[in-house]
Design goal:
ABC_transporter-like_ATP-bd, ABC transporter, three-stranded antiparallel β-sheet, alpha/beta, ATP binding, 8 strands, five-stranded parallel β-sheet, 282 residues
Length: 282
């Protein structure tokens, strides 16, 4: 970094810190937020003002986000009581004469991880799509909270959009502005050991990295219900461990997490399982 760039960055960080303090953020936290913003901007090899805009305006946004986080924490405190975020009663799905899912009932509470397991062809992915509202059940009832994150087994990305553009697109669905979306997405990506390349479209990412992006998009808006369909295809062992740590973090934060898996040792960390079996034509 050139001396001029360093001075600009230092000045921007100081203005941000002062703006945060003026908005009621305590000095230690204001300093930490300024340092984090500078560090995140450096990941993109850009001055922080190019990433976040003027320090004074960004300070107001951060202060507003901090107040919203307090309200969200109160909501999560309430959700940690275990109130259901998903409830299925006698759900079945048929395609013609083929029954794919038969009479499934389950209830997922906030602060729980549930697992759907079963042999290939037992209807695991179909059931998860029913939970997400992507497929209509033939019979039975489905109740879910409104704020839902869904992570597919593959696909679901726009091939020409970069990771950052995906962050902005999905974040906008929750009312986030571009900078808030970028920060939320980057932080989740880092929890998976990934620093997104700001120039590569999704089609140029490896299969494992595309799935990391899908996981980030599933959680970027802090949904109360997170549905994941074996999204760890292509993960190395380190990322696989990080993935489960993120699921545990979501559970600790009060979200309900439902994951499709075929790996038996995954079940050690879940609260309950729902086992499906292949159905015969009738």
């Amino acid at each position: 970094m050139s001396e001029d760039r360093a001075l600009e960055t230092e000045g921007w960080a100081l203005r941000l810190e002062r703006g945060l303090a003026g908005a009621g953020i305590d000095g230690r936290r204001a300093r930490r937020l300024a340092e984090e913003a500078v560090a995140e901007a450096s990941d993109y090899a850009l001055p922080p003002e190019e990433v976040y805009g003027p320090a004074e305006a960004y300070a107001r946004e951060l202060a507003r986000a901090a107040r919203a986080a307090v309200r969200e924490e109160r909501r999560l405190d309430e959700s940690r009581s275990g109130a259901p975020v998903l409830r299925l009663r006698d759900v079945s799905k048929r395609y013609g004469r083929k029954t794919v899912v038969r009479d499934v009932s389950l209830e997922l509470g906030s602060g729980q991880i549930g697992a759907i397991v079963g042999a290939n062809g037992s209807g695991k992915s179909t059931l998860l799509k029913i939970c997400a509202g992507l497929v209509r059940a033939t019979s039975g009832s489905v109740e879910r909270v409104e704020n839902v994150g869904y992570v597919p087994q593959a696909g679901g990305l726009s091939p020409l959009l970069t990771a950052s553009e995906h962050f902005r697109l999905f974040g906008s669905l929750d009312g986030k502005n571009e900078r808030e979306s970028l920060v939320a997405g980057t932080r989740l990506a880092q929890s998976l050991g990934w620093r997104p390349n700001r120039k590569l479209g999704a089609a140029r990412l490896s299969g494992g990295t595309q799935q990391k992006l899908n996981v980030v998009l599933g959680g970027i808006n802090r949904p109360r219900l997170i549905l994941l369909d074996e999204p760890y295809q292509g993960f190395d062992q380190g990322t696989y461990t990080d993935f489960w740590e993120q699921l545990f973090s979501w559970r600790e934060a009060g979200a309900g997490v439902l994951v499709v898996t075929h790996i038996l040792h995954d079940l050690d960390g879940v609260d309950w399982t729902c086992e499906l079996h292949p159905q015969e034509e009738s």
